[in-house]
Automatic annotation (TrEMBL):
Family: Belongs to the EamA transporter family.
Keyword Cell membrane belongs to the record: yes
Annotated transmembrane regions: 35-55, 67-91, 97-118, 130-147, 153-171, 183-202, 214-237
InterPro entries: Diverse_Substrate_Transporter, EamA_dom, EmrE-like
Chain intervals for the UniProt region annotation (Disordered): 300-319
Protein name, as recorded: DMT family transporter
Source species of the chain: Dactylosporangium aurantiacum
PANTHER family documented for this protein: EAMA DOMAIN-CONTAINING PROTEIN, OS03G0707200 PROTEIN-RELATED
Residue span, EamA domain: 2-142, 153-286
């Protein structure tokens, strides 16, 4: 069941940009999408914590919530996650879902570089080779269109989302072992919802009212690609361990690419496909290398990237 749950989580996360494209087509603005997504996810996770008190406990017993822990959890959502999600969905308006998912998937490599610079990890020959291959793969993804459909601003926004997510992961490493995952996820979602509510009030509201079709896609984003994706990842993580869960999560951009081809009639060129394979293979190699040698203080990665959710305790980036 463990690997199946991890793959199911990756599939739920992989559907996120597809739901986003359909929501945009139904007239949803990025501000509305983000506000509804995080507010609804926070409400669902909060209700789950009320109904299942055991989710508020760690393996060592009840959690002692301090103001510092609560503020850090809320801050991760209010600053890091809200910014990352905003950049991601802004990029999604300008470019296809398939190449954007591969651009975002550079974040495990950025985390590795940051961990080396911060002396949390060591740069081995294998990691250097993986980083080089991933950089070449990213370049192929960007240039594979031949310039016809390339949107420079969309690519910059996508890389901005990956870089912001990298910082979010490194900060989350300071609290991820001190709070239960569902509780931390709820705090992150609530923090993001507060920021986006404030943004909506300042800018005059989240946009025009959404119709039934728009609400269908918004519900799919919040329930399927946020709450269900997060909970199935946690369940799979407990059964498989962090490294296996991280490697299985590389299935996510594969799902995005396949769904984009089926529903949005998008397609990657052969050059982009080769670049994407390089990026995903490099991410998997980095995880495999970490399995063999435990780093000094490796960063953890949240399940959501993808702009997913709160951090899951693990010694390697979850991709």
């Amino acid at each position: 069941m463990g690997p199946a749950l991890c793959l199911l989580s990756a599939a739920c996360f992989g559907a996120l940009p597809i739901f986003g494209k359909f929501a945009y087509a139904a007239g949803v603005t990025p501000a509305t999408l983000l506000l509804v997504r995080f507010a609804l996810a926070a409400a669902i996770l909060g209700a789950l914590l009320l109904l299942r008190p055991g989710l508020r406990r760690t393996a060592d017993g009840p959690v002692r919530l301090t103001p510092g822990l609560v503020l850090t959890g809320l801050g991760l959502g209010a600053v890091g996650y809200a910014t990352q999600a905003g950049l991601y969905f802004a990029a999604l308006r300008r470019m296809d879902a398939s190449p954007l998912s591969l651009i975002l998937y550079t974040y495990p490599l950025l985390v590795t570089v940051a961990a080396v610079l911060l002396r949390r990890d060591r740069l081995t020959r294998a990691r250097a080779a993986a980083l080089t291959a991933a950089s070449a793969g990213t370049l192929l993804v960007l240039l594979g269109t031949g310039g016809a459909d390339f949107d420079p601003l969309g690519a910059v926004l996508g890389f901005g989302a990956a870089a912001t997510y990298t910082g979010y992961i490194l900060v989350a490493d300071t609290v991820v072992h001190r709070l239960p995952p569902v509780l931390l996820s709820a705090l992150v979602m609530a923090g993001a919802a507060v920021t986006l509510t404030g943004h909506a009030l300042i800018t005059g509201g989240p946009g025009p009212g959404a119709g039934p079709r728009a609400w269908l896609w918004l519900a799919c984003i919040a329930v399927v690609s946020t709450v269900a994706a997060t909970l199935t990842f946690f369940a799979g993580l407990r059964r498989t361990g962090p490294s296996t869960a991280a490697i299985l999560s590389t299935f996510e951009p594969v799902v995005t690419t396949a769904l984009a081809a089926l529903t949005l009639h998008e397609s990657l060129t052969p050059v982009q496909l080769a670049g994407g394979l390089l990026v995903l293979a490099s991410a998997a190699v980095l995880q495999l290398r970490r399995t063999a040698a435990v780093p000094v203080a490796a960063p953890v990665a949240p399940p959501g990237h993808r702009d997913g959710a709160a951090p899951a305790p693990q010694p390697a980036t979850q991709v």
